[in-house]
Amino acid sequence: MTTITIYHNPRCSTSRKALELLREQGVEPKVIEYLKTPPSVSELEAIARASGEPLRALLRTKQPEYLEQGLDDPKLSEDELARAMHATPVLIERPIVVGPKGARLGRPVERVLEVLG
User: Fold this and answer.
1) What is the pLDDT of residues 80-91, one digit of tens each?
2) Is the pLDDT of residue 2 over 90?
3) Within a 10 A sphere around the Cβ of 44, how many other Cβ atoms?
4) What integer pLDDT is reported at residue 117 of this predicted model?
5) 31 Cβ contact list (under 8 Å, min separation 6)
6) What is the reported pTM?
7) How far apart are CA 88 and CA 107, in angstroms?
8) Calpha distance 88→84 (Å, rounded)
9) pLDDT tens, residue by residue, 32-52
10) Half-sphere exposure of 10 toward its Cβ, with a 13 Å CA cutoff?
11) Which positions are catalytic?
């Protein structure tokens, strides 16, 4: 059986809904509370590749830290963004679900079903 992983924030209603939706589908995912255990730089880059989106698509642009760290600069590399996200995990958009068919940001929440095998 393939492992499904959710990068989860239990305080986020969308993240809770995504976890509930997975469980309704009979999936018990590996739950990573990314604020406590942030993904590494290489994991973030791999998640972005698996999603087919640029890393910037997984960045929470409404966080004050986004502007404070100058992350709105379009010249920043994927590596620089990943390092900022790892160092300041509140910048990671949520929920992110990784499965056999790639990775998806759960906004809207039903998108997480796209990665199930």
Assistant:
1) 999 999 999 999
2) no
3) 27
4) 77
5) 5, 6, 8, 19
6) 0.94
7) 21
8) 6
9) 999 999 999 999 999 999 999
10) 4
11) 12
C-alpha count within 13 angstroms, C-beta hemisphere, residue 46: 8
Per 3-state DSSP, the chain is made up of helix, strand and coil in percentages (nearest 5) of: 45, 15, 40
Could you identify the residue written with the tokens 């969308």? 14
Residue 108 pLDDT exceeds 70: yes
Answer yes or no: are the C-beta atoms of 65 and 89 closer than 8 Å: no
Buried-state track 56-94, b at ≥16 Cβ within 10 A, e below 16: eebbbeebeebeebebeeeebeeebbbebbbebbebbbb
> How far, in Å, CA of 53 to CA of 1, rounded?
26
Q: In which residue are the tokens 């963004």 written?
A: 81
DSSP secondary structure, 34-69, as one string: TTTSPPPHHHHHHHHHHHTS-GGGGB-TTSHHHHHT
Two tokens at 44? 């973030």
Residue among 76, 32, 34 at smallest CA distance from 55: 76
What are the structural domains, with CATH classification, of the chain?
5-115 (3.40.30.10)
